[in-house]
Every structure is written in structure tokens, then in C-alpha cells.
Specification:
- There is one protein chain.
- By secondary structure, this protein is of the alpha+beta class.
- The chain has four domains: 88 residues, Zinc finger, CHC2-typedomain (DNA Primase, Chain A); 136 residues, DNA primase, catalytic core, N-terminal domain (DNA primase DNAg catalytic core, N-terminal domain, Alpha-Beta Complex), CATH 3.90.980.10; 202 residues, Dna Topoisomerase Vi A Subunit, Chain: A, domain 2, CATH 3.40.1360.10; 163 residues, DNAb Helicase, Chain A (Orthogonal Bundle), CATH 1.10.860.
- The chain contains 27 helices and 16 strands.
- It has a five-stranded antiparallel sheet, covered by helices on one side.
- Strand 1 and strand 2 form a beta hairpin.
- The protein is globular, with a radius of gyration of 27 Å.
- 41% of the residues are buried.
- About 7% of the residues have low confidence.
Length: 634
């Protein structure tokens, strides 16, 4: 993730705008308010889209952008200053993009290529392992299509199979160690890390290979699960298995479900419940919650009874930050979960699984049971209370005191005073005690200590969807990536757009400030003749944008050698970007128009005219798209 993307991921645009004195109110999935950049206070024509991390004023300003553009306009900063400002706010260090960093990125790309080859390598061995295939088909109820879709494989017995295979293909032992495919013993020798295991490729949210999870076939082998080690690509605290496939279903359902195992995720996806993901076998981290919050604030932990039950709850309460870090067990860290929930303003719930069954076993026996279990999920505090009270003699004063001493610290961790009071009332009712006794210091076991109150204002974090998630952003990245490789195509593209009755490429076609600045730099590279345009771009983008330039070039496949086809794809990309932007604007304008009509606002006519203008522009885009299709058929 680039520095710019990291900053975007840590700054919630709704929080940023609200902190600037703009009172926003929820309007569907978006937020509206009065524009902070001009004096009109009659109509809330300022709109914030949290999903894309962008804003727009449909009033006097008629401008829009992302968090960087907002800060630049509010504080009169340039992009570099805005980046430094927001990076400091987000706790992200802005490093100078050096040759060494570029070499590191190129090495990471090299390691990803190696891991992609490893996926095919292990998949080939799975086809030759009938007993492993039988286990996946019969015990885990996975179809051949699902096995292929998720790239499952098998690491055969032996200590140097992968070593010999990949060194024979030109990779070095250092490459294999850096990718996590090899391990090193105390004497410095190397051996295959994965042996006699089902291999599960693990990708980041953008679908890029990072490493493997591996499950035993022989029950006598240990450990049961083995992940890739920490590598430049694989960091288990920053990854969620299955997210590259689950991101769209999570957004569509407005809910993410976290389960314990990789095969649980696969089984749920096969059954049609594609909003499921899994951590890497350890306590959920704030980085993982941030990833999920890009798509939904509603998160359900579907845990087996041992983890979600009294054993897991008590362990989590007693060792919130010091529990074991096992690759085979997901830790139920109650206080950690509550901190993440409050800090990220998430809606976190817990669903217990019945009869000691795994999620894939539940959907295999009764597909309709799964949505019922998820629907019945409870808030974390309520789940803990129910768990601690199960099968207890609540008439015993010692039992009451013991439960209260464990639940009250959780309640006091909650940042919202209404939630705290509500849960205290509920606890008092359930324990059949006077609520006032729950506020007495001795409940905590520390005489004289009053219950701790957190600050009412909790800084929250949010994410801007990545290019793999947001269609408009994905298209922006593609078009810019091509133009960064072939800047000379920009002028030709402008002429073709004009011939189709459209305007040349404009800054406003791009929704993100860094992309707008790159477009300006590409234009400038063509207006000078001192150096090669690509070299000019690299010089102008030094430091604050160089990392982005490298990423966009690396993410964009080599352009089609036929120039006409490249230009055709670029035209389609620009048309798609404009259609998406116009569609979003029209939907919001219609909402503002209806709202203004209800309030008898004079701006109703203005909104109606804007809707009409946008509709005409959409018609022009459709005509240009049709011409492009007809030309392609000739």
C-alpha cells in the first residue's frame, strides 16, 4: 500500500469534514450538509460519499474531490503540504521515495510472480493426490469447481521438492526464503516449509498473492495449521482470508461475517454466503477491522462454542493483550474487540455456532440455518453476559459479584454514555440487584477506585475503497497507468474524444486529487521538449507522488502493441468514468431536489436544471459509446 493509500485508509472523510465544523446528516448511504466554502446556508448542497471517500458541492462552488482536495481548499495548501498534514493526523510517516524503495517494490513484484507460480505448482500435486481430493470432496463437501476457483493445492512429502523445482526455474534460495516457501534450520541449511499439507493461497484485498495457509492431512502431523512466515508480502495482522472475493458481497449485504478457518470461508462461499472472511489464526487486529470497514461497519463474529463460550471469554478477559499467538486458534479478545468497535465506530456482534459444528458443516446439513444464526448474533457485551450467566446459580451473591466484576469493566470501556447506562441497567435487571450497587468501587475489586470513564469523543478511522473495489477508481488507475507508460497518447485521446462529440480529458474526470495532479503532470510533460516525457513525469512526481507513479505503472499490464486498440480502451475507460460520476451525481441531485420540494426551497428549479444537464451529458456519452462499438465492428 502506498503512503497516499495508507493515509486515505486511516482518515474517515465524514469525520474530517465534521471536524471542520460542517454538520452532516445521514441521507441514505451518503451525508449532506451546508458547504463550508461559500456563504449559502439555505440548502444543504454539500454531499459526502463515504464509500468512495469523496465530496462534492452542488451549489455555488460546483467543486468536489477527496480528503486531500478538501484540506487543500480549506487551508490553502498544495498537495504535498496536504499530504504531510493528513499523514501526521493519521500517524503515517511520509518517506522520500528513493532508489532503494523502488528496488524493494520491484523485488516484491518478483516475489508475487514466484508465489503465483507456486499456486500452480501445488495445484498440480493435488490432482495427483486422490486421498487429499477425497478429503476435500467427502469430508469438506467441496466441489471440483470450488477447489479450482480458490486455487487449492497440495504440498507433497519431501524436504526439497519446492527448492529443486523453483531453483530449476531460475529463482534463488533467497527468493524462496523471502517468499516464505523455504525455512532455514539452525545450521543455515534450507528446506521446504510446506510438506504433506493442503495448500490454500492467501491474497490481499486487491487479489495479489501474499503467501499460503496450510492444513494437515494426517491427523498425527503438527501443527494443524501452518501459515507463511512474516515476509515483505505476508503480514497476518494486515490480511483477511477471502476478502478479495468477499468485498463486493460484504458491501451488497452491508455486513461482514468473520469465521475461524480458511476452509470455513470456502465452504460458506460455495453455499452462496460470500460475505465471509477469516483472520490468520490470531486475535483480530485494528488493521483487519479497518479493512472490513471499507465495505461495511456491521461485523459478525461467528465462533464455535469453545471460543465464544465461557472458556474463550474468560481467557480474553484475563489476558486481553497477552494471550497466546497460535496459528491454530483464533483468540477471543473481548476488551480488544470492544476497543476496535468503539475506535472504528463499528457494529460488532457475536454469533455462537451450535453442536460443535464448523460453519461449512452447518451449511452442508441445512443451508437455511446459517442466515438464522447470523441474524441472531448479539452485541459483544450481551454475548459475554449471557455466556457468563449460562448454567449459573444467579441467586448466589458470590456468583452475582463474580459476573459483575467481569462485565462492568467492559461496560466502562464503552465510549458512549447512553450505551454504558443501558448495559448497566440490563446487568442490574439480569442479576436482580440495585443498579446503584454496580457503581460502587468494590465491584471492581479495587477499593476506593471509581469506574473509569473514557472520553466521549473517540477518534475514528475509515477507509477509501481500493482500486479493486471501487469501479470508478479502478478505471482511473487503469487509464492513468497506460498514460504514464505512454504519455504521448494523451493528445491523440483528446482528439478522438472531440471527434466523438465529447470534451477532452479534464481534471474533474478523476475523483481523486493525486490522480488529478498526475494528469496535469502528464500534460506538462508533452508541453516541454527538454527531456523525455516519462523522465519529466518522474522528476515532477518525485517524493510525494513517485510511489504512486511506480504503483500505477506496475499494476497496469503492458499496453497492447496496436496503438489503435490502446486508444479505444482508453476512450472506453474515460466514458465509463464519466458515466459513473454522472450517475452518482444524478442520484444525489434527485434526492436534494425532492428534499428542496418538501421544504419549499427555491433551489428546486436549480436542482432540476442540473439533473437535466447531467442527463444530456449521459445521452452524449451513450452516443459516443455506440459510435465506438460500431467502429469496432467495422
Amino acid at each position: 500500500m502506498s503512503t497516499i493509500d495508507e493515509v486515505k485508509s486511516r482518515i474517515d472523510i465524514v469525520d474530517l469534514v465534521s471536524e471542520s465544523g460542517v454538520k452532516l446528516r445521514k441521507a441514505g448511504k451518503n451525508y449532506t450538509g451546508f458547504c463550508p466554502f461559500h456563504d449559502n446556508r439555505r440548502t444543504p448542497a454539500f454531499v459526502v460519499w463515504p464509500e468512495t471517500g469523496t465530496w462534492r458541492c452542488f451549489g455555488q462552488c460546483n467543486e468536489g474531490g477527496d480528503i486531500f482536495k478538501f484540506i487543500m481548499k480549506r487551508d490553502g495548501l498544495d498537495f504535498k503540504e496536504a499530504l504531510q498534514n493528513l499523514a501526521a493526523k493519521a500517524g503515517v510517516q511520509v518517506e522520500q521515495f528513493t532508489l532503494r524503495q523502488q528496488e524493494r517494490r520491484e523485488q516484491n513484484d518478483h516475489l508475487r510472480d514466484l508465489l503465483e507460480e507456486a499456486v500452480l505448482y501445488y495445484a498440480g500435486f493435488l490432482k495427483q493426490a486422490p486421498e487429499v481430493l477425497a478429503y476435500l470432496h467427502e469430508k469438506r463437501s467441496l466441489s471440483g469447481e470450488t477447489i479450482e476457483k480458490f486455487g487449492l493445492g497440495y504440498a507433497p512429502p519431501g524436504w526439497d521438492n519446492a527448492l529443486k523445482h523453483f531453483t530449476g526455474r531460475g529463482y534463488s534460495e533467497e527468493d524462496l526464503l523471502d517468499s516464505g516457501l523455504l525455512s532455514q534450520n539452525d545450521s543455515g541449511g534450507t528446506y521446504d516449509r510446506f510438506r504433506r499439507r493442503i495448500m490454500i493461497p492467501i491474497r490481499d484485498e486487491r487479489g495479489r498473492m501474499t503467501g499460503f495457509g496450510a492444513r494437515i492431512v494426517d491427523p498425527e502431523d503438527v501443527p494443524k495449521f501452518l501459515n507463511s512466515p512474516e515476509t515483505p508480502l505476508f503480514s497476518k495482522g494486515r490480511l483477511l482470508y477471502g476478502l478479495e472475493r468477499a468485498r463486493k458481497p460484504i458491501r451488497a449485504a452491508d455486513q461482514a461475517v468473520i469465521v475461524e478457518g480458511y476452509l470455513d470461508v470456502i465452504g460458506l462461499h460455495q453455499a452462496g454466503f460470500e460475505n465471509a472472511v477469516s483472520p490468520m489464526g490470531t486475535a483480530l487486529t485494528e488493521d483487519q477491522f479497518r479493512l472490513l470497514k471499507r465495505f461495511s461497519r456491521n461485523i459478525v463474529l461467528a465462533l464455535d462454542p469453545d471460543l465464544a463460550g465461557e472458556k474463550g471469554v474468560l481467557r480474553g478477559l484475563e489476558s486481553a493483550r497477552q494471550a497466546m499467538d497460535r496459528d491454530s486458534e483464533l483468540r477471543f479478545d473481548v476488551r480488544g474487540l470492544l476497543r476496535h468497535e468503539a475506535r472504528l465506530q463499528a457494529n460488532l456482534r457475536v454469533a455462537s455456532l451450535p453442536d460443535g459444528l464448523d460453519p461449512d458443516e452447518i451449511v452442508a446439513r441445512d443451508r437455511e440455518e446459517w442466515p438464522r444464526l447470523v441474524e441472531a448474533a448479539k452485541p459483544v457485551v450481551m454475548h459475554v453476559l449471557d455466556t457468563l450467566m449460562a448454567d449459573k446459580d444467579i441467586s448466589d451473591p458470590r456468583v452475582k459479584a463474580g459476573i459483575a466484576s467481569q462485565v462492568i469493566p467492559l461496560i466502562e470501556d464503552l465510549p458512549n454514555p447512553i450505551e454504558r447506562d443501558s448495559y448497566r441497567q440490563m446487568l442490574a435487571r439480569r442479576l436482580k440487584v440495585d443498579e446503584r450497587t454496580l457503581l460502587e468501587p468494590q465491584v471492581h475489586g479495587r477499593p476506593g477506585r471509581q469506574p473509569r470513564r473514557r472520553k466521549e469523543q473517540v477518534q475514528t478511522l475509515s477507509e477509501v475503497p481500493t482500486a479493486a473495489v471501487n469501479p470508478a477508481l479502478k478505471t482511473e488507475c487503469y487509464c492513468l497507468g497506460i498514460l504514464l507508460q505512454r504519455p504521448e497518447l494523451l493528445n491523440q485521446l483528446d482528439r478522438l474524444l472531440q471527434q466523438a462529440g465529447l470534451t477532452p480529458i479534464e481534471n474533474q474526470d478523476f475523483g481523486y486529487t493525486d490522480h488529478q495532479i498526475l494528469l496535469q503532470i502528464i500534460r506538462q510533460s508533452l508541453d516541454q521538449d527538454k527531456v523525455d516525457p516519462r523522465e519529466f513525469i518522474d522528476i515532477q512526481a518525485a517524493n510525494s507522488l513517485q510511489e504512486l507513479v511506480h504503483d500505477l505503472r506496475a499494476q497496469t499490464s503492458e499496453p497492447d502493441p496496436v496503438e489503435e486498440r490502446i486508444l479505444e480502451e482508453l476512450q472506453r475507460g474515460i466514458i465509463k468514468m464519466r458515466r459513473l460520476n454522472l450517475g452518482a451525481n444524478i442520484n444525489q441531485l434527485r434526492f436534494l431536489q425532492e428534499e428542496a420540494q418538501q421544504d419549499g426551497d427555491m433551489r428546486t428549479t436549480s436542482y432540476q436544471e442540473l439533473v437535466l444537464q447531467h442527463t444530456h451529458l449521459l445521452r452524449d456519452l451513450d452516443q459516443a459509446s455506440l459510435k465506438l462499438s460500431l467502429r469496432r465492428q467495422e
